[in-house]
Amino acid sequence: MIIMTISIRWLGHSSFQINVDEKVIYVDLYRSKQLRERVPDALDPATLVLATHSHNDHCFPEAINEVRNSETTVIAPADCSEKIGSEITSLTPGEETTVQGITIKAVHAYNVKRFRSPGNPYHPKGFGVGYLINAEDKTIYFAGDTDVIPEMKELESIDVALLPCGDTYTMDNRDAAEATRIIKPKIVVPMHTWDKSVDDFKKQVEKETDVEFKHLKEGESFSI
Fold this sequence. Notes:
Layout: E1 6-12, E2 15-20, E3 23-27, H1 33-38, E4 48-50, H2 61-67, E5 73-75, H3 81-84, E6 96-99, E7 102-109, E8 115-117, E9 120-121, E10 128-135, E11 138-142, E12 160-164, H4 173-183, E13 187-191, H5 199-208, E14 212-213, E15 221-223
Parallel strand pairs: 3-4, 4-5, 11-12, 12-13, 13-14
Antiparallel strand pairs: 1-2, 1-15, 2-3, 6-7, 7-10, 8-9, 10-11
Helix pairs in contact: 4-5
């Protein structure tokens, strides 16, 4: 039996490249001038591109067009279609699809305590999603832009959790540590940090859980 390795590479901000054998998945691919300077490598053609919501730093048409070809499947909320300018597959929380043996399931992602103005969250419920990516009997949870939400209690058997912790629009370090305690992944990786320190996140995870904390440098990868 051939055992395939899954590699996870942080491209900066909330952008990740996930390789499953020869298949390439990009999640929330964002290639600002600053990120291109930090990770200048040319990117591989995509099997799958996932976008969690239509904000420009998560649904960035220029970057998507760089990696997309006629065989690429793009999965994103419906309001991303006008930005991307091509046919997409949209999943609402609870829905899933399988592409070349990789199963993608949408889950909830939203704010409960971070607001533009009173009663107006940055990411209202139903605006965006997170994703469960299942391949080779491994499950990766990409949280999207979210606070700690009740639906996290429903997540099970997560191998890797990719969690935002930069505050303002998403969880902060304390919240992300709480989410880690709830989800109980084998590995947790911080993202959407806005270049802020993740030390408090790391300290809480290492003190209160048995979860492995991986703080990647931009362009760095690891395998599971």
